User: Which sequence fits this backbone?
């Protein structure tokens, strides 16, 4: 039980309250560490009861109007700092979410480019996975890709015209020809059937090579972004599952035959009608999505399944999930779809090798180049600069994606995203590096003898001086981290962690500017070092939940 729950339960018990008593952090820290609206005709008596039975973690209780404000004690903050430094990475662990949760995200298609839409999905999906995992759930990460279909035929056809082209370029070339040239369109449609039937040995070999090279490229991108999937499921693997699910839908009269196809009449449920099997007997994306959901449930027996895609698929998923609900309610009732917006650029268009398609690696590399320019004058080796630039570039992009609530478009500003000050990923990374640097200096000065910090309060660290001093804003912020992580997990909202870390970094940098942290003549110096250590641990843990690394130096 965290301190928030402890106080809420205590108030309910002392005041005999049956309804919920909910605490929140006041906007201004001067109004207490927790506050709650409370209306009572016996307010004065109730306050006296709370004061008489006050918890040891509470220093004082005040009321302003109908708000009761609770101020936590210095002892509580000192113990919280101890806990952070003892538990370190595990300080974040909560038990808000249990069970087995399947998260599907990124979903790049072989033979097509890994573009910035995949980068969006990956950043969001990976962060949500880590946050829910920190909240106590067992997580399985999945990616679902389309390795069959018209896009494959367009790519193979393009490659056959110009073998020197990359697979990305071949897809763009084939797609343009399919749209603009009727003869090319007919050839591609015919090729699509040949690929599906596996009736031509040379084309089969070209398909296998392209599929393997695409998947190998995706794996390198996953490694670069810090994602390890438990399983990659391919569209070609769920065709039979799709046909079985459609048969079940027909048996239950949920799906119906119409003009040689199988459809779901979404209008009956306020949605729109979609085809699940076309007139040629081929299952569509809708049927495969239906089969995929059932397959995931059978393979993993999940308590919850989360699917993350671009929000252009929101209406599509409403139809598929409604059909799933009617055919396999136990699957649909445990499935959630989260749609995200697009990544746009503040300066208009970004240069791209593939026309209108912006590759994820191109964006990362362009941001990386800007970081390298920024740190060019620093005394780092060439390999150190490359490592720092890679970590900071990916952090800058992920921060920009995760800093706001999921759903709306993201406006990416190159200059703001790489700023070492203010609202940016590099600012958080720089603050973490600064805190670590203080700790390194303290070890060098033998203020602390190892990676560990002393416990507080204790007799040999002038605890009376430490506890007599007013609680700093830093102390009053550090302990909140698990609460933020819990809320982010419950609401699938990484932006809460982004906001918290940005505020924490600002508070620490003010503390750093005002306080002399390492001072052998200051009896409170070890405690200041402990605060710095706790800040470093929380920044690193929080950034990790966002899928962002802390570089060794900046």
Assistant:
């Amino acid at each position: 039980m965290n301190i928030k729950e402890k106080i809420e339960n205590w108030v309910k018990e002392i005041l005999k309250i049956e309804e919920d008593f909910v605490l929140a952090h006041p906007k201004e820290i001067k109004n207490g560490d927790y506050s709650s609206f409370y209306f009572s005709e016996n307010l004065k008596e109730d306050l006296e009861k709370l004061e008489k039975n006050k918890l040891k973690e509470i220093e004082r209780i005040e009321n302003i109007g109908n708000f009761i404000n609770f101020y936590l004690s210095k002892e509580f903050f000192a113990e919280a700092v101890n806990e952070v430094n003892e538990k370190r990475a595990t300080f974040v662990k909560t038990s808000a979410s249990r069970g087995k949760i399947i998260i599907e995200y990124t979903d790049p298609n072989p033979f097509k480019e890994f573009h910035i839409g995949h980068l969006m999905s990956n950043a969001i999906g990976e962060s949500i996975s880590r946050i829910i995992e920190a909240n106590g759930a067992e997580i399985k990460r999945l990616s679902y890709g389309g390795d069959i279909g018209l896009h494959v035929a367009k790519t193979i056809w393009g490659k056959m015209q110009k073998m020197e082209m990359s697979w990305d370029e071949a897809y763009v070339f084939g797609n343009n020809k399919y749209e603009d040239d009727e003869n090319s369109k007919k050839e591609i449609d015919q090729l699509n059937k040949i690929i599906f039937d596996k009736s031509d040995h040379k084309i089969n070999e070209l398909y296998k090579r392209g599929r393997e090279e695409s998947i190998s490229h995706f794996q390198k991108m996953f490694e670069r972004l810090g994602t390890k999937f438990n399983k990659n499921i391919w569209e070609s693997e769920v065709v039979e599952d799709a046909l079985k699910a459609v048969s079940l839908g027909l048996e239950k009269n949920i799906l119906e035959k119409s003009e040689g196809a199988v459809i779901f009449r979404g209008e009956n449920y306020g949605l729109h009608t979609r085809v699940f099997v076309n007139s040629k007997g081929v299952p569509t994306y809708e049927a495969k999505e239906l089969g995929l959901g059932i397959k995931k449930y059978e393979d993993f027996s999940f308590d919850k399944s989360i699917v993350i895609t671009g929000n252009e698929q929101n209406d599509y998923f409403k139809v598929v999930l409604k059909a799933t609900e009617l055919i396999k309610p136990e699957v649909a009732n445990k499935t959630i779809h989260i749609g995200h917006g697009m990544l746009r650029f503040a300066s208009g268009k970004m240069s791209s090798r593939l026309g209108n398609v912006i590759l994820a690696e191109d964006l990362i590399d362009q941001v990386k180049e800007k970081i390298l320019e920024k740190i060019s004058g620093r005394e780092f080796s060439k390999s150190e600069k490359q490592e720092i630039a890679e970590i900071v570039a990916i952090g800058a992009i992920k921060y920009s994606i995760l800093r706001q609530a999921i759903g709306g478009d993201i406006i990416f500003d190159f200059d703001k995203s790489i700023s070492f000050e203010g609202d940016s990923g590099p600012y958080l990374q720089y603050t973490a590096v600064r805190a670590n640097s203080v700790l390194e200096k303290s070890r060098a000065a033998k203020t602390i003898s190892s990676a560990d910090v002393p416990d507080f309060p204790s007799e040999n660290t002038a605890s009376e001086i430490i506890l007599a001093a007013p609680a700093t804003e830093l102390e009053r912020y550090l302990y909140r981290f698990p609460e933020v992580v819990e809320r982010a997990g419950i609401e699938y909202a990484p932006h809460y962690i982004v906001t918290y870390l940005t505020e924490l970094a600002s508070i620490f940098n003010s503390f750093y500017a005002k306080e002399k942290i390492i001072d052998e003549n200051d009896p409170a110096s070890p405690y200041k070092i402990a605060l710095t250590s706790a800040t470093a641990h929380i920044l690193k843990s929080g950034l990790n939940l966002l899928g962002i690394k802390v570089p060794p130096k900046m």
Observations:
- The first helix runs from residue 3 to 15.
- Residues 454-461 have pLDDT under 50 and may be disordered.
- The longest strand covers residues 138-145.
- The CA atoms of residues 192 and 276 lie 19 Å apart.
